[in-house]
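[stage:ingest] chain + small molecule (adenosine-5'-diphosphate)
[stage:ingest] validated
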Amino acid sequence: MAETANILVVDDERGIREGCRRILASEGHAVDVAENGAEGFTLVGSKPYDLILVDLMMPVMGGLDMMDKVREYDPEIIMIVITGFATIETAVDAMKHGAYDYLPKPFTPDQVLAVVNRGFEKRLLSLKARKLMEERDQHLLEVAREESKSHTIVNSMADGILVTNKEHQLVLWNPAAVKMLNLNGKLEAGRDIGEIIHEESLVALIDRALLPDSSQYTAISEEIEIKEPEPKTLMINVSVIRDKHGLELGVVSTLRDITSMKELDQVKSQFISMVTHELRAPLSAVEGYLSAYLSGAAGTDPRTNRQMLERAKARTHSLLDLVNDLLQFSRMESKRVERKKELLDVTGIIAGTVELLKNRGEANEIQFETNLQEKLPLVEADRVEMEVLFTNLISNAINYNVKKGKVTISADAGDHYLNIRIADTGIGIAKEHLSRIFDEFYRVNSPETRYVTGTGLGLSIVKRIVESHYGRIDIASEVGKGTTFTIKLPVKKEQQRASE
Ligand code: ADP
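[stage:predict] done
[stage:export] tokens:
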């Protein structure tokens, strides 16, 4: 036997102890000795013994008592009883106390070795069995862990997963697929997918992948439109699952909700067509005026010519507004805005903006009225953004006004806010548009707004500016009567106290 054992010999007879030690050590085993059961059991606790040879009759602690203790401590240590009176009764008694074999005194070295080798073999076998069992348990644990890991991964995926076998039955699914296809309550492994999934296009796609001649491809991708519970676009990817011999086992379908991507794509196309359209109309007009002037078709009357150039200038102005809106928007989108907040007299900015924009209302004979309370508290704000804010709102009040309409701008101090109202007596906004008026690119499409150039970005920029200054904006409007925007900008606390 190549392996060597840790052996303990417990006997009160020195000759037996030393004899055994010599015989066993000559075979390469590591041997310890003890004089009685108590001493022997102390050693058991200090070292992992494979075998114990123990005398039955000893002072202090007898062999049977010690065997009971050892069995309790480690039932797999092999115990061999050394006995001077080997009767059937002593043997049975010793077995009951956990002995594996016994060695009758007197014994020859060969007898000792034969008994010990048998016992050690048994010890090695049980150690191997224990190791195998531990390995199996470990393996089972790993499999269970692996399974629960895959389960968790599949279940927490944002993409939907449906696995179907060759028999067209549902095998596996995840919560995302259940949600996307509105399948709640209908799922059961083994049911035909045709009965469960009512999206015919999806079932047809899976069918196609399962066709016998589908071996030409491993995956098919297609977009499908879902109507229930709400309209959605799903990108479906169906892949054939094959075993290592290439035999088809079924298909796995992944479902991705691409509704928002589709919407974004649509918004992008609409935006491009809107911008090109909005740029084209005023540019053609300007070109028309200039050509007429240069070719002499406009005649020679300086007044008519001047009017024409004024109109061309007005159109270029609105073009610039449009381009500025686009620039401001793209800066805000890319978060490249650097705000320089300072204590500002907003009313001064309002008055300046009104002066700048006044002439735009001349063609429609728009009247302006400003009621700005004196000594209004200062507001901590970015100057450029405040100019953009009021330019947008006052331009709208001019653009969406009626002939001889009025624009009234007023400002007063509230409890914690500076209140600014920009009211017009223009075309107004119908209720159904009010909730979307601050959305990007949203414009009201009506005969009255048709000739006003714009991007639909102005109010979304306004809202972002107000919010980035911790303020709020409200709108009240009535079709045919006019619109009032109310802005509240927070006033710095220290000032408030000073003015109280
Ligand atoms: P734009 O003016 O470039 O179209 P805005 O975001 O500034 O974009 O405004 C969005 C829409 O809201 C406008 O197209 C218009 O229909 C409506 N609107 C904005 N301000 C007014 C107003 N003062 N009176 C009537 N309609 C308005």
